[in-house]
Every structure is written in structure tokens, then in C-alpha cells.
């Protein structure tokens, strides 16, 4: 076990005695900013540059091989989360006979305001050693896991060079290609995936807010493996009072709390929305042994399920639906007190097959709330029974319009087929009327959805419904929106338009939208996606006005959630493992779609400059981190990957190569299940560009971009003509600054003037005078040159050497704009590979006949460079404004009490 001790004052790098007496003194790594990826394919990212310059460590547990040596940095992740650590040190382990033995281990962390004191240290023998001259040690915080030999790490540092190899290929990190997943990133000839078809009946009890369901599932074992049991996800169990999600949620800040938050805290403890499973039987009605494991359920098969066999079983269940105001989630109901009605948005509501995959077996990582859903594709038949005055919207195509829609509504649907604008199917007036109706019975709405990974639905008597059929690259798609009057006037204006816009833009960058329906519903859930249907929250104020934030928030969230049909509903990535694979890719396309909505659309994510504050921030983990362990969720899994892809597209590959490769990825993995390596490999395979350095830097590390122009050196060719060259040197000598003593000594009487006989040849000799010998040598040199060589001599060129420094650690192309004396400009785009031999400092030669006046790195803010101040040579004045204000004294408590009295007496006088 390794222990991390904390000390309460800074210890400068290098002065720790434990570092001084290392048995392997050549590896005194000064480590910082390493991240541990708490993933199955655990990888580690050191960043030498960062730690050399920044002595702040915000490390996550991390280890890597460096030649014979394994370096392990303890897990400080938890420390950071509780705001204790600002700094810490390293441990060095030695690897012997391929077993890792702890050789020297020492780590200490600084605690900002911690003054409790306790000391714990660790060495191989377990002896506690005093760190001489060190400040008092503070609390031992925790232990980290036993030291084990780590697999190859994300970066390998060479002990004889002290630099990580930023361009090392990712082969040792990515899984070995197979005939299922090829080295090219494409699915291979042996690719397989399971399939599950569902026939579901569900009823909503509007009085009790209760859902009762019954499903018949046919599971097709397409794998080459024999299965003895099946796993199902009961995601509603997240709403059990003792669910892992509830038990592991950490304490909120209680210094201030809103009444709503307090209500939620109270309700969350009492509410039980977990599933009651009432029946699990096989196709013949025989009970099946089943075991609940929190949000999962295992069904033991009566006989092993062989490859290419199918198994049919039935499950009945019911649960209490959560009031989304008190127990928020991706599903729930919203009560409207004014009219006594409810909107239900129902999701992750039926027992769903856990994905069984070639890369992970059963993906039955428990549902904690963040890591969404990893599901199998299949065909669904869905019967939804609700009060007969409800309007239902669901994944799939309505099968029984004659039974559930009025004649007028069916007629309007006919009109909407060829409309160029959305048409009301249920008008606002009708919806308003429905609100005051009472049901006279029940109705069952039947939907069919083919080749989807999930189904969701919404139901309410409040719904206004508009629709428009649209042609998406040859495919007819119904774009439809369902919303209450509270959503107006925003929704009828923007929702269906946003759906159609999304389908048009996304289809262009990926594949034509393959489903017949795309629906956006307004209800309690702010933004959540399911196949063919999504739930979106923004509404105007009660007085029907709305802010620009609400307007663009609505358009953006609809683009985003409809866009999720492509990732991960169709390109069926593993959400419980990787959030970025759907959120990152989707946010990237969302940005492209937003920019095609209107000029200067206020996109929140996508532009490199918008990611800068996050890239600079400290509490970070790499994008390649499991969904549940991500810090700064939105920035990590949405904004950073979206921005990285945008940069890859605009500044590294160019639009043509990027768009081709991205489309190829979407095409290859449509209705299949890709992993990160399939994405990384396909983007390289199709673009023809090695991007391992890019994935390594942007996806596997928390480095940021900060490239500095440190210096510019100018060289010119010396002239062989002694008249020119020596004359030039004389001028330079004249221009040299006169030192203070030389100026003051100038007028002192000199001895040689007093005694002229002391002067000889050297008193008059100037070695910069042109001699006869010089002239002869020049003539001879000229004669030896041919015409081409003479021309070289005549050409006037400036040889500039730019000295760049990589301060942030992330290697990136260097984009240099040169401003010349003659008021012209030129942009040099230097590929990232310039850093391949030295990822910290590089020099670049630039030859020009012109004279450079200034240069600027990344002039168009393409690379998310976090410090633009050092992008200028010469450095620029940093401009800012400050405001003048007049000080106002706030009232003291006595004054406040007095003015209250005054008010009160005024009131009584009235
Ligand atoms: Zn999303």
C-alpha cells in the first residue's frame, strides 16, 4: 500500500531528501498533472513539460514505465475534490523481474488551510522516515491501492532525455485489432452484435401516477458464444431510496439552500420509484429464476443459449412515476396546478437487455445517473394505454390512427404530408379545451419502431401537436412537436423547424436519417434523447416574452437531442463507458447545424476560444475517462471533444479530409457499436493522416495549448567583398553603446600623447581596414565561382530563426502570421510534427527578402491557445478597462431597524 502524506507548507522541487538519495538518481522526475483514467483500459498520461514548469500537482493516481523504472504517482483525485491539495510529489518504484517492487516511495501534498498534524510516510521497509528540514506534516489523508505492475502507459518518458514522446503511436493503448474490429477502424468480417425484439404493453394510471407494464422479449444470440444467463437493466431502480445513486451522492453545500432544493432533498429520501417485477417467465409460461442486482437483473436460462439461437421470455412490472420537480431525472411527470393536468415523459421505463459485446462481455456497470444507456438494437411493438382524452407521442409510427385520432386530425395529417410549414394536428384551441375535459375511458395507442435501441413516450391532455412531412435525402420523415400552451409562442415557431434543420444538416455530414419519424416534446425534462423522440424543456415566461437565452437554448437543445438519433441511437456507442462518443460527436455536429441556422448564431460550444477557461482549469480528467468519473461533465464530455474535432477539421485535416473521414466513421458504424479505437482508427484510415499525437494530447491528457514565441533571431549572409563586409563591421562597431567608463575616460590625458615615441604600427592599425591582401583574396574567390554561385551571393535574403516554446504541453500546429516592414502579411502553417524530436522547444528557420516587424501566433484563434499574450513578438501591452464607482456605505443593523420602524409608523398613519 502506498500512503500519501500531507505537509502544510510548500516544499520546493528538488529539496526533498528522499529525492536526493534515490538509488536511481537519474530519474528524479518532477511530476505533476497526471491523470488516472478509471476505465477498463486504464491508461496514464504524464506530462513532463507541465510538471517541470509548474510545481503544482493535481494528480490522479498514475503510473508508467520508463525503461526499467516504474514511476507511480498516488491518487490525489479525492484530495482535489475536497479542495485540500495544491501540491504533491512523486514516488518512484523499481521494476525487477517483471514484478514491481516498491523501491522508494514518497509523496507529500500541501494542504491549503489544514493545520491538523499527523505524519505518515512510506518506504519499502515500511519504516517511517523524517524528511529533514521539512515543515510539520499534516493529516494523512488516505491510502491508495496496492502497487501493481501497470500496463503500458499513455506516454513513455525516456530517462535519458526527460521528455515524453508526444508522437508515440497509440498501439500500446488501443486494443489489439481483431477480425471483429479491424486495424482500419472498420467492423470486420467477424463483427457481431446481439439483438432483442420487444412487444410491450404499458398503462399509465393518471390518478395514481403509476406505470404498469408487460413485455415479451425475443433475444437473439448472434454472438459466437454460449450464454447461460441474460442480464437486464432496470434503470428505474435508480429511484429506490437506497440506490447506489442516492447513497453515493455527496453532500451539497448547505450554507444556502433554496426551498426547492430542500424539498428535493427530503423527497428523494422518501420516494421509491423502483420497479416491482411481478412476473418473469419463459415462452411457455414457466417461471424463470431471476436475481436483482440493484439496477440490473439476471435471468438464468433453463438451457444454455447457443450461438444463433433465440430465447423468448416475458416480464411484468410496475412502478411509481417520479414527480420530476421533486425527483428530477431523465423521465417523470410534471403537474400543472392551474388546470390540474399532467405531462408524462416516460423513459428507461421497461426492463431492457444489457448489451453483450465482443469487447466487454455484458456491459452491466450499474446505473448511477451519469453514464447513460448501452443497448441492443431491435424491433418494437408498443401499446400505450392512457385516459382517452390524452394525446400520445412515442418512438415509432402510429399504427392505429383510426382508433385514436379524430377525423379532423387525420385530415390535417394528410395536409401536413405535403406542407412546407408545420401544420397543427391538435390546435391550441383544441388543446385548451382538452385541458378541462374529463376522461370517459381509456384508449390504447399502438406504435411500431424498427431497428431502434430503445423506445420512450410522452402523454398528456395538454398537448398541442404540429407536424410537417419532410424529404431528407430521399426519405420521407415526419417532423412533429408536442407541447402545452405554456410553451407558446416559442414552440410552434421553432420546434419543428429545428427538427427539420437538424435532419438536413446531420444527414449531410453522416448518413440520411433512416427513421420515419422525428419528434420533439416539451415537458419536465430539459433535454433528453431517445430514438425518434426527444424531450426538451425551454419555455417562455408566463407573459409569453422570452430572453434570447431561452430562444437559442430551445433551438440548440432541439438540435442537440434530435441530433442524438445519429449518435448514439444509430451509431450505437457505449454510453455507460464513454460519454464523449455520443455527447462530444453530437455537440460537434450541433455546432455545425447552429452555424447554418443564422449568421452569428450564439453557439455555446465549438469555437476554440470558448474552451480556453476549461483547458486552463485545474480539476480535470482526460476525455478518455469513464462516464461516471468525469469531472466538469459538460466541459469534459461535450465541449472539449466537440472543440477538438472542430480544430481537427478546420486547422489540421481541413474540411474536405475531415468531412470524408467523419462520414466514413458514421457510415461504417451505423447500426453497429463502435468503441473509441474504432473512431480514432477510422479517422486516420480515411483521412490518410497519422493523428495519434492528436488523440493522445486531446483525448488522453489534460494538457492545454499554450505556445509561446520566445525569440526571433536574424541572420544575413556575410559578403565576401572586404569593402562591404569590413565596412559593415565598422558601422556596427560605431553603433555599439559607449560604456560609462569609456565615456568618462575619453578626455583624460594619455601617456602616448605625452610621449609620442611610444606609438608604433599598432596604434594606427585598424583590423577592419581593407588591406591589399583582402582585395586579392576576394578577386581569387570570385574567379573560383560559377555564375549560379555568384547569383547566390548577390541575392539579399534575411534568415530568421523563430524560437518557440510549448508551455501548455499539448503539441499542436504552429500558425504564425508575419507582419513585414512593407505592411504586408504572410501566414506560415507549421504542422504539429515539428515537435516530434523536442516537444518543449523548437526553432524554425524562415527565409525572406522582407524585413519582419512583428509576428503573431494563432492570429485567428484556431487552437484554443490559453495564453495569447506570449503569442506576440514583440510582446504587446495588455489592455483592460476598470470602472470608476462611488462608494456607498451599506446600512448597519441599527439603521435598518430604525427605517423599519419608520415604515411601520407611516403605515399606521395611513
Ligand atoms: Zn446530449
TrEMBL record:
Gene3D superfamilies: Neutral Protease Domain 2 (1.10.390.10). Residues 505-698 form the Peptidase M1 membrane alanine aminopeptidase domain. InterPro entries: Peptidase_M1_aminopeptidases, Peptidase_M1_dom, Peptidase_M4/M1_CTD_sf. GO terms for cellular component: cytoplasm; extracellular space; membrane. Residues 723-747, 888-910 are annotated as: Disordered. Coiled coil: none annotated. GO terms for biological process: peptide catabolic process. One of its GO terms (molecular function) is peptide binding. This is Peptidase M1 membrane alanine aminopeptidase domain-containing protein. It comes from Thalassoglobus polymorphus.
Amino acid at each position: 500500500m502506498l500512503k500519501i502524506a500531507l505537509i502544510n507548507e510548500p516544499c520546493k522541487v528538488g529539496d526533498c531528501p528522499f529525492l536526493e538519495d534515490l538509488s536511481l538518481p537519474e530519474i528524479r522526475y518532477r511530476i505533476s498533472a497526471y491523470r488516472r483514467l478509471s476505465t477498463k483500459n486504464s491508461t496514464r498520461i504524464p506530462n513532463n513539460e507541465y510538471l517541470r514548469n509548474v510545481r503544482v500537482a493535481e494528480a490522479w493516481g498514475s503510473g508508467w514505465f520508463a525503461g526499467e523504472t516504474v514511476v507511480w504517482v498516488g491518487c490525489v483525485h479525492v484530495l482535489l475534490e475536497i479542495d485540500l491539495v495544491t501540491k504533491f510529489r512523486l514516488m518512484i518504484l523499481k521494476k525487477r523481474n517483471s514484478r514491481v517492487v516498491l523501491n522508494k516511495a514518497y509523496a507529500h501534498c500541501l494542504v491549503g488551510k489544514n493545520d491538523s498534524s499527523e505524519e505518515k510516510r512510506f518506504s519499502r521497509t515500511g519504516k517511517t522516515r523524517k524528511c529533514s528540514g521539512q515543515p510539520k506534516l499534516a493529516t494523512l489523508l488516505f491510502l491508495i491501492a496496492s502497487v501493481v505492475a501497470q500496463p503500458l502507459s499513455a506516454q513513455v518518458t525516456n530517462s535519458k532525455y526527460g521528455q515524453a514522446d508526444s508522437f508515440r503511436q497509440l498501439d500500446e493503448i488501443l486494443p489489439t485489432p481483431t477480425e471483429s474490429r479491424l486495424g482500419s477502424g472498420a467492423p470486420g468480417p467477424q463483427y457481431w452484435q446481439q439483438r432483442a425484439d420487444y412487444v410491450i404493453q404499458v398503462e399509465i394510471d393518471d390518478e395514481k401516477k403509476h406505470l404498469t407494464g408487460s413485455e415479451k422479449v425475443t433475444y437473439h444470440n448472434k454472438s459466437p458464444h454460449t450464454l447461460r444467463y441474460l442480464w437486464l437493466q432496470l434503470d428505474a431502480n435508480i429511484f429506490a431510496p437506497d440506490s447506489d445513486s442516492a447513497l453515493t451522492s455527496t453532500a451539497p453545500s448547505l450554507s444556502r439552500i433554496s426551498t426547492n432544493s430542500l424539498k428535493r432533498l427530503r423527497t428523494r429520501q422518501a420516494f421509491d420509484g423502483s420497479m416491482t417485477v411481478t412476473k418473469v417467465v419463459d415462452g411457455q409460461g414457466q417461471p424463470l429464476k431471476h436475481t436483482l442486482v440493484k439496477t440490473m437483473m439476471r435471468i438464468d436460462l433453463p438451457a444454455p443459449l447457443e450461438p444463433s439461437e433465440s430465447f423468448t421470455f416475458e416480464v411484468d412490472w410496475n412502478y411509481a412515476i417520479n414527480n420530476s420537480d421533486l425527483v428530477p431525472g431523465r423521465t417523470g411527470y410534471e403537474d400543472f396546478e392551474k388546470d390540474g393536468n399532467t405531462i408524462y415523459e416516460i423513459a428507461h421505463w421497461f426492463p431492457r437487455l444489457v448489451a453483450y459485446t465482443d469487447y466487454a462481455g455484458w456491459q452491466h456497470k450499474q446505473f448511477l445517473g451519469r453514464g447513460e444507456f448501452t443497448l441492443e438494437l431491435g424491433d418494437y411493438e408498443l401499446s400505450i394505454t392512457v385516459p382517452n382524452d390524452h394525446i400520445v407521442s412515442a418512438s415509432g409510427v402510429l399504427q392505429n390512427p383510426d382508433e385514436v385520432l379524430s377525423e379532423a386530425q387525420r385530415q390535417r395529417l394528410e395536409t401536413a404530408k405535403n406542407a412546407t410549414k408545420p401544420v397543427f394536428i391538435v390546435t391550441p384551441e383544441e388543446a385548451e379545451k382538452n385541458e378541462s375535459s374529463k376522461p370517459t375511458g381509456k384508449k390504447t395507442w399502438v406504435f411500431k419502431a424498427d431497428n431502434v435501441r430503445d423506445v420512450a413516450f410522452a402523454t398528456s391532455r395538454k398537448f398541442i401537436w404540429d407536424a410537417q412531412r419532410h424529404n431528407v435525402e430521399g426519405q420521407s420523415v415526419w417532423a412533429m412537436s408536442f407541447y402545452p400552451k405554456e410553451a407558446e409562442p416559442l414552440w410552434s415557431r421553432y420546434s419543428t423547424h429545428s427538427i427539420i434543420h437538424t435532419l438536413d444538416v446531420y444527414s449531410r455530414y453522416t448518413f440520411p436519417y433512416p427513421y420515419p419519424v422525428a419528434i420533439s416534446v416539451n415537458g419536465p425534462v430539459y433535454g433528453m434523447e431517445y430514438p425518434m423522440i426527444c424531450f426538451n424543456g425551454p419555455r417562455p415566461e408566463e407573459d409569453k416574452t422570452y430572453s434570447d437565452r431561452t430562444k437559442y437554448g430551445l433551438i440548440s437543445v432541439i438540435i442537440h437531442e434530435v441530433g442524438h438519433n445519429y449518435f448514439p441511437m444509430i451509431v450505437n456507442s457505449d454510453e455507460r463507458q464513454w460519454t464523449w462518443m455520443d455527447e462530444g460527436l453530437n455537440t460537434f455536429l450541433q455546432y455545425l447545424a447552429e452555424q447554418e441556422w443564422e449568421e452569428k448564431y450564439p453557439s455555446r460550444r465549438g469555437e476554440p476560444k470558448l474552451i480556453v477557461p476549461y483547458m486552463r482549469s485545474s480539476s480535470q480528467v482526460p476525455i478518455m475517462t469513464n462516464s461516471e468519473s468525469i469531472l466538469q461533465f459538460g466541459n469534459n464530455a461535450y465541449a472539449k471533444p466537440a472543440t477538438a474535432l472542430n480544430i481537427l477539421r478546420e486547422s489540421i485535416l481541413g474540411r474536405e479530409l475531415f468531412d470524408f473521414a467523419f462520414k466514413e466513421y458514421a457510415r461504417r458504424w451505423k447500426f453497429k457499436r463502435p468503441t473509441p479505437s474504432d473512431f480514432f482508427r477510422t479517422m486516420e484510415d480515411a483521412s490518410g493522416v497519422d493523428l495519434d499525437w492528436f488523440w493522445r494530447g486531446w483525448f488522453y491528457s489534460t494538457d492545454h495549448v499554450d505556445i509561446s514565441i520566445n525569440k526571433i533571431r536574424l541572420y544575413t549572409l556575410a559578403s565576401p567583398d572586404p569593402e562591404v563586409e569590413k565596412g559593415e563591421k565598422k558601422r556596427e562597431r560605431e553603433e555599439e553603446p559607449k560604456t560609462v567608463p569609456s565615456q568618462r575616460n575619453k578626455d583624460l590625458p594619455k601617456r602616448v600623447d605625452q610621449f609620442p615615441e611610444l606609438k608604433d604600427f599598432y596604434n594606427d592599425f585598424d583590423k577592419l581596414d581593407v588591406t591589399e591582401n583582402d582585395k586579392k583574396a576576394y578577386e581569387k574567390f570570385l574567379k573560383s565561382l560559377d555564375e549560379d554561385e555568384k547569383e547566390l551571393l548577390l541575392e539579399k535574403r534575411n534568415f530568421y530563426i523563430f524560437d518557440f516554446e510549448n508551455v501548455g504541453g499539448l503539441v499542436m500546429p504552429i500558425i504564425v502570421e508575419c507582419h513585414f516592414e512593407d505592411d504586408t502579411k504572410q501566414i506560415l502553417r507549421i504542422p504539429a510534427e515539428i515537435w516530434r524530436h523536442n516537444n518543449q522547444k523548437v526553432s524554425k528557420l524562415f527565409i525572406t527578402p522582407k524585413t519582419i516587424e512583428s509576428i503573431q501566433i494563432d492570429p485567428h484563434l484556431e487552437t484554443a491557445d490559453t495564453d495569447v499574450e506570449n503569442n506576440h513578438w514583440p510582446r504587446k501591452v495588455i489592455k483592460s478597462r476598470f470602472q470608476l464607482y462611488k462608494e456607498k456605505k451599506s446600512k448597519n443593523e441599527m439603521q435598518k431597524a430604525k427605517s423599519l420602524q419608520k415604515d411601520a409608523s407611516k403605515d399606521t398613519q395611513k
